[in-house]
Task: structure prediction
Amino acid sequence: MSPAAGPAGPAPAPTLAFVESPVQLLNVLEWAHAHGLSAKVRRPATDSGDDTSPDRAAGAARDLLTVVVLAPTDPMTRGQLRRMAELARDEGYEVRWEEARGGASAPFRTIGALTGRLRQAERVVMGDPFSRYVQLLLTITGAPDLVVVDDGTATMEFTAQLSRGERLVRWHRKGGRPGPRDLLFAPVSAAARRRLAPGAAGRDGRRVEVFSSMPIDTVPDGVSVTANRFVWTRTRFGPPRVTTGADLVGTSLVETGVVDCDRYLAAVRALAGAHGAGRYFAHRRESTEKLHRLAVETGLEVVRPELPLELTARRGPIGRTVLSFPSTVVHTLPLALEGTGVRVAVCDIDPSWLTPTASPRAEGFLSGVTGTARGVHRVAGTALPGRQAPQAP
Result:
């Protein structure tokens, strides 16, 4: 063994991370960097053939962290995930791409392929504790360490529900009646909630960590919270070229049934006109039909980013002002763009924009997303459509 390598320490505990979206994978990389797992594997200066060889070093990095992508079917999400997977491999991590939704038998194949690793894992990192897939995997593993990395506003709701002992339900569905699939899956969801339950850490040696850039007001008993400052993002990318004018960030609130499409488009048109925005960064879940209509009615250039917006903005170019509706980015962009002089501004959702079927919690939740954001400016709503019906373009 090379003297520089030092004495052999204990074998690294295998860590499995499960992600279903590009942002979740980004935040796994941020978590790994914050915990010292993210040093890129480099070729050693000596070519002695000892334990510091590149192959052995790469193997050690893979032992530390394996990222499992539970691939969705949406083409835009898949494209961003493939680009993020390349970045993860560049950091020296193993990435497994699982076609977890490729037909009726896909879940059985995926779970069968992962069962062995799940049972050996000492730590499981998850991007979405609301995911039925992830909840099912949690019933298989006995890993003593569980980590929830940031999934944006969902993380705020997760910690709040966990603190109150409630069943795990996404905020935009809360208040609705459980469907047949919800009732069928209820035992699995309850078992997963118990694994993540307040007070679980310390009773039997299990530990639960939440890694988040979101404001976590209520921390469940026994759960530790680590701040995500987007250090990896700022280290690897930028600073960006900052242009004059403004860019506007899209949201999928229409697609999730929270906001009326006509009201949303009218608000985008008014916001872009008031601030001179030229580009619209589309959310990966926004429909093609809505985006086509938006481009025609507003004149904005619609951009579909290849990477999460935090990385896209950091790579640049980016407008001096970034306008957004209430969403995760009003919390993450100020961190990713720290020190660049870019101003992030947020426009509240007027209650009249909500659909009749929107969750009763929608108005309060979205207001809370804006009100708790640090380092952002509030956009005056006087020029935006309120309770009056939007005018025709």
